């Protein structure tokens, strides 16, 4: 089925009708997402003004907020100060009474990913377009190696990302170990702009790595100044749990949660943390879903270890009661790994996020439609794992964490944008509204409301795990690369407009690692000289 996106009508209607089909569902103008670059009628968007003044809003950074104007030229912020004067031909956006903030950066997505016998329904264009409508202006996707080859995986993802409409970066997964992989890791860091590598402790028989491989990977990451990331579940125990559920006749979506309880996430998190401590290298734990995992991270951080904890929106807000719904199609849409946990885990993760125990919020956006999810009817092990989140993240985090009073607006900027930019070493180019920063900006109206629906979202999938959710705080304008791409509830996106953002190694997380190593060596009091006579 062809998939199309709404665009603002900037050329005569008769010309538009010749270029683009109309959506049968809502008769709203769409831009053909299957077209490539200059072959697309989307090119008319390039005529949009490259000079923009955002006037009178409260400019919010992670460290400070002030009422000021923001002036943009050619994709870059060139001035942030009160009462900027411009000529009449400059586009002016009135942000009085609203918050002007850095666009969101989603650290954890899976677009066009081949997984569990299927491929995620959102590609780089559709997923990114949805993200822009929700206020996210950059994401970092996970490259999956091809038959263990990092270079082949990288090239495959470069091809997948050609129609990107917003900026993006890459993490790289490591699924096996040999000298070639070690050499390719070095190439990825030094030549391809990748500064993070992910190790799956789950998915036995496919992505899972053992402790020996993890140790080798941690050592290599440290030497390259690259951040090691882990999906922390005990894959061997999960495999046993799955067999147990099938033997008990539990084959529906509830079996997914029952087969991989929080204790297995806690165990793997603790193991990865201890091995990272042994190597003395920073560690990033993706999609922290349970109290068990969060407490291991809190303990490590209290001891001074460099551990980053990333909760995802689904883990913060949902609970596993949905997996027991008698409607398979409804329940299956919530299947992800680690699974959504019982009530209580989410509120504990929110508190940990507010307290700084967890540092930033991702989505693990990995969408499959109802037909794909139906592959697991009769066997929960075959349900493609993943939920949506790229479009909803900024709204739901604001409503849950800021509107409720759990965090401040500056802390919101930190957990949705700035901390990600700092961790992956692209701050202040990204994650800030400062002179010289990229003009990736959102304007959020705290008094406006939002409502989430699969009928109005911008994904390709036919379901939404936040169906019917409402809240306060709406992103009314998104500016990406200096272009207004979301305004008046209309998307204006260009396939190919997104840029690949190279991320250099040795972020702030590596500061002082060499001194700690030297201190360790001096503490050994070894080798001891002994007489051989």
Automatic annotation (TrEMBL):
Keywords: Hydrolase, Metal-binding, Signal. Its cofactor is Zn(2+). Its EC number is 3.5.2.2. Residues 99-485 form the Amidohydrolase-related domain. Residues 1-25 form the signal peptide. SUPFAM superfamilies: Composite domain of metallo-dependent hydrolases, Metallo-dependent hydrolases. InterPro entries: Amidohydro-rel (IPR006680), Hydantoinase/dihydroPyrase (IPR011778), Metal-dep_hydrolase_composite (IPR011059), Metal_Hydrolase (IPR032466), Metallo-dep_Hydrolases_sf (IPR050378). The keyword Kinase does not apply. It comes from the Eukaryota. It is an enzyme of class 3 (hydrolase). Gene3D superfamilies: Metal-dependent hydrolases, Urease, subunit C, domain 1. It catalyses: 5,6-dihydrouracil + H2O = 3-(carbamoylamino)propanoate + H(+). CDD domains: D-HYD. Belongs to the metallo-dependent hydrolases superfamily. Hydantoinase/dihydropyrimidinase family. This is dihydropyrimidinase.
């Amino acid at each position: 089925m062809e998939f199309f996106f709404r665009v603002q009508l900037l050329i005569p209607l008769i010309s538009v009708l010749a270029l683009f089909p109309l959506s049968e569902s809502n008769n709203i103008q769409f831009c053909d997402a299957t077209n490539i670059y200059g072959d697309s009628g989307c090119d008319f968007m390039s005529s949009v003004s490259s000079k923009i003044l955002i006037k009178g809003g409260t400019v919010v950074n992670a460290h400070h907020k002030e009422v000021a104007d923001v002036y943009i030229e050619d994709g870059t912020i060139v001035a942030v100060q009160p009462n900027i004067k411009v000529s009449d031909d400059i586009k002016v956006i009135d942000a009085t009474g609203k918050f002007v903030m850095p666009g969101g950066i989603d650290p954890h997505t899976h677009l066009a990913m081949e997984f569990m016998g299927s491929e995620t329904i959102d590609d780089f264009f559709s997923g990114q377009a949805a993200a822009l409508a929700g206020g996210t202006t950059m994401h970092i996707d996970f490259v999956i190696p091809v038959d263990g080859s990092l270079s082949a995986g990288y090239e495959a993802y470069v091809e997948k990302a050609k129609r990107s409409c917003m900026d993006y970066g890459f993490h790289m997964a490591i699924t096996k170990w040999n000298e070639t992989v070690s050499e390719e890791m070095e190439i990825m860091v030094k030549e391809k702009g990748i500064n993070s590598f992910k190790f799956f402790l789950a998915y036995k028989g496919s992505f899972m790595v053992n402790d020996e491989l993890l140790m080798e990977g941690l050592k290599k990451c440290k030497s390259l100044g690259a951040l090691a990331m882990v999906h922390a579940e005990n894959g061997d125990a999960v495999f046993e749990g799955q067999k147990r559920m099938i033997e008990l006749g539990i084959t529906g979506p509830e079996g997914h949660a029952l087969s991989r309880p929080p204790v297995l996430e806690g165990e793997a998190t603790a193991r990865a943390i201890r091995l990272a401590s042994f190597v003395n290298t920073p560690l990033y734990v993706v999609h922290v879903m349970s109290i068990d995992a969060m407490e291991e991270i809190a303990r490590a951080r209290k001891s001074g270890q460099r551990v980053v904890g990333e909760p995802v929106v689904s883990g913060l807000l949902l609970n596993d009661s949905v997996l027991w719904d008698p409607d398979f199609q409804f329940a299956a849409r919530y299947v992800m790994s680690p699974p959504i946990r019982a009530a209580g885990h989410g509120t504990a993760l929110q508190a940990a996020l507010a307290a700084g125990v967890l540092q930033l919020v991702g989505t693990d956006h990995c969408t499959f439609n109802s037909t794909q999810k139906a592959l697991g009817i009769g066997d929960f092990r075959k349900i493609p794992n993943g939920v949506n989140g790229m479009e909803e993240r900024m709204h739901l985090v604001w409503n849950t964490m800021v509107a409720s009073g759990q965090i401040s607006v500056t802390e919101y900027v930190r957990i949705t944008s700035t901390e990600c930019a700092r961790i992956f070493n692209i701050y202040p180019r990204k994650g800030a509204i400062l002179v010289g920063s990229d003009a990736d900006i959102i304007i959020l109206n705290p008094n406006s409301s939002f409502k989430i629906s699969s009928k109005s979202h911008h994904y390709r999938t036919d379901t939404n795990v936040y169906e019917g959710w409402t809240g306060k705080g709406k992103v009314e304008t998104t500016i990406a690369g200096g272009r207004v791409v979301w305004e008046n509830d209309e998307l204006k996106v260009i396939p190919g407009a997104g840029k690949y953002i190279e991320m250099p190694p040795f972020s702030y997380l590596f500061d002082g690692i060499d001194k700690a190593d030297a201190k360790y060596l001096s503490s050994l009091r070894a080798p001891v000289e002994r007489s051989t006579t």
